[in-house]
Structure formats: structure tokens, C-alpha cells
Design goal:
heterodimer; A: about 0% helix; B: globular
Amino acid sequence: DAGITQSPRHKVTETGTPVTLRCHQTENHRYMYWYRQDPGHGLRLIHYSYGVKDTDKGEVSDGYSVSRSKTEDFLLTLESATSSQTSVYFCAIAPTGRGDTEAFFGQGTRLTVV
Amino acid sequence: DAKTTQPNSMESNEEEPVHLPCNHSTISGTDYIHWYRQLPSQGPEYVIHGLTSNVNNRMASLAIAEDRKSSTLILHRATLRDAAVYYCILRDLQEYGNKLVFGAGTILRVKS
């Protein structure tokens, strides 16, 4: 299995509080991605990174920020959590952004905002 | 990103082959066809990818139409463990701006 660890795996937080989810990899892959998945829906890309300090927005980036200060860690921050951000969050990594390489996913973080 | 179209759901009997279709009529010459699957309560996992030729690995086979406007993921002998959501996506060969975007996928149900 690819070395990806998401933490925490489960979190309950209150509306209005800041939350940071961490994705840690041991593969030295350049690309890292954050997705959210809601019941009955597919994966929606929030943000992705193509290198240290290099990030870009995905389909549903409003309300989220990211940071990548070192290759192995990609942090997703909800500055002020809302109930609509209750979801399962997945991190993915890939050695490059090229289409001839595959991506590997973490096991997910279940976030509940009450 | 070029889009793909998949059936919402399919059903299969255990130990029989399964053919999961994907249409991608606007595929470009440098788009790779990727398949991922997501088992219940797990993160997605890579299954297979290809460009023009058919591909085989230990999990599945990928059959790509000659005009590349469609492809089929083949599970040779479905098991209950293959029940999952299967995603067909396109990824351009170019390095930058390649966002790895997923559609709704096909829910595969396997009957015993």
C-alpha cells in the first residue's frame, strides 16, 4: 500500500471553529490532492498541490485553504467550519501530474460539524 | 478536462465476467483512460489505465475502442468483494493543470 496517512480519521467540531486535516505521505510524490465526498455523490476536488508551496483550486474550493510547506505534508484548513462542510475527506498522491501515472488514496477523514 | 459517461449502476452474478462501459467521445490524443474503484467505506483504489492498446493486470482488463471514444473495464470473474463504485476518468499526458477530476461512477452490485 502507498504510504499515505490521513489524520485525524474522525473529528466532530462545532460550527465556527477552525479545523485542520493533515495528509502525510512517505512516497516523496510531487502531487497531492484533497477531495470531499458526500453521501450519494462522487469525489469532488477541493485543492491540489504540484509541489512545495505550489497549490491550485479545484471544483469546490470556497471555504477551504491549503498549505504545503514540505513535500510530505498537505494540510487542509476550514477557517470557520460550517454544517455544509460535514463530509468525508480524502487525500490522494501521485508521482507526477502526467496521465501515464496512477494516484493513490488515503483512507479518509470523516468530519462532522455540529 | 474531457468528460466521461458511465451507467449509474450495473448488476452482475458472482463468478461471471463483468463489462463496465465508459464513453469519452471528446477524448484527446494525449488523454489516458484511467479506472479507479471505491469499495464501501474505503478510499478509491487504482485499477488500470491505458492509452491506445488493451491492457491487462492482475485486477482487470481494459479494452479500448479503436477510435478511443469508448472503453470497457472487464472483471473476468466477479466476486462479492468487487462490489464497488467504479470510476472512469481521463488524464492528459501533460504535467501541469492536470486536476484528477472524478465523475459519478458506476455502482456495481454483485449477486451471490
